[in-house]
Amino acid sequence: xxxxxxxxxxxxxxxxxxxxxxxxxxxxxxxxxxxxxxxxxxxxxxxxxxxxxxxxxxxxxxxxxxxxxxxxxxxxxxxxxxxxxxxxxxxxxxxxxxxxxxxxxxxxxxxxxxxxxxxxxxxxxxxxxxxxxxxxxxxxxxxxxxxxxxxxxxxxxxxxxxxxxxxxxxxxxxxxxxxxxxxxxxxxxxxxxxxxxxxxxxxxxxxxxxxxxxxxxxxxxxxxxxxxxxxxxxxxxxxxxxxxxxxxxxxxxxxxxxxxxxxxxxxxxxxxxxxxxxxxxxxxxxxxxxxxxxxxxxxxxxxxxxxxxxxxxxxxxxxxxxxxxxxxxxxxxxxxxxxxxxxxxxxxxxxxxxxxxxxxxxxxxxxxxxxxxxxxxxxxxxxxxxxxxxxxxxxxxxxxxxxxxxxxxxxxxxxxxxxxxxxxxxxxxxxxxxxxxxxxxxxxxxxxxxxxxxxxxxxxxxxxxxxxxxxxxxxxxxxxxxxxxxxxxxxxxxxxxxxxxxxxxxx
Length: 507
Known about the structure:
single chain; alpha/beta; about 20% strand; elongated
């Protein structure tokens, strides 16, 4: 079906000039609004402003401009339906065969720190979703485009169809358009639920990003939904697996804790070792030395570009994925010699407004992400002896790591590295034993270390075991009915201890 008239109104103007020029070349009349019209006109593309087309001015600061019978009638009337055709003619309604709309950036707005309710409400698009839904309902005759990524497909169709679009493309884009408006409304409802603390409902409507070969195990089907590729770019290696994606996400959350040059190694979403140093090669040695067995087939992440010396060191072991903000060219060339190794580039900072979603039988659990800051430890001391500066630094380092270790979690740390990690045991004492055993296996001394516990020590035995292992400082939330006994045990063993008041369970 040849396109006679197109309406273009976009907040994201990526690629819009190329599409508009192609439409103009096919003799399509272009309608537009506001900033989009100005951008098209500045590029020399003939444009009719919507207010002139409808005969009605934009009013209420632009809130009402496309909500008009000549717009929605032009989108909705059924081509070939005699009654519809007569009514359209009688009311001066001309066909609009293509709508190119993307919505006000509501989600980007509410992701900003300190956004007000009023600012968020101003970014609720009304006319855009209305036009999208009208065009989508009539996709037999009207093409609707909501994503700049689809402009190339529209241009290809215009050329192949002699200035029109195929039914197959219109149908695909209509489905995508309905998904877009649904997700947009869900984002608004979710924000207002949080803002008003009503939480009457929670919606997820995410586009399919990729079908995976299988899930956690080969007999399980799996897909990835959302915008994972907006956060990471795969530079090299075979396709990502379900488990890779889980590990990459966990690694990204962990490395976000550190501002100094840091390397971390993870396996099954648990940290195996973390090290900090101005020399990335040394940071790697500190991380790797924590546990030289577990990293086999693991995930490595760095918060600075991967250098050649670091690449040479990490290439000596088999890894599934290496993640960094960038890879220096010689480092990348070296790592790409391993054809199956995935190299992932970090594209943007993490949002501070993320929420954790977990499936359960019959529903979903939703919570804020665990983004609690480290408190001023000097004012959290509960023992007779306050910690030294080095002990405070060790506690701070270990506290950043322990929140990313599966509960029960114990981490022994110095000021710039992990020394022993115990994860996921049913008893906190057992987690401590695992951490001590790992340190012994690695030949690392725990003398003078800080022991970090994601939750309180329920009894003095865990603290006493840590002191016997060599820890001279302890950091934990506190809150046990046995706190007084644990503090007494710390004093008797000359362990400086702080209570953070914040727990970091991770199930």
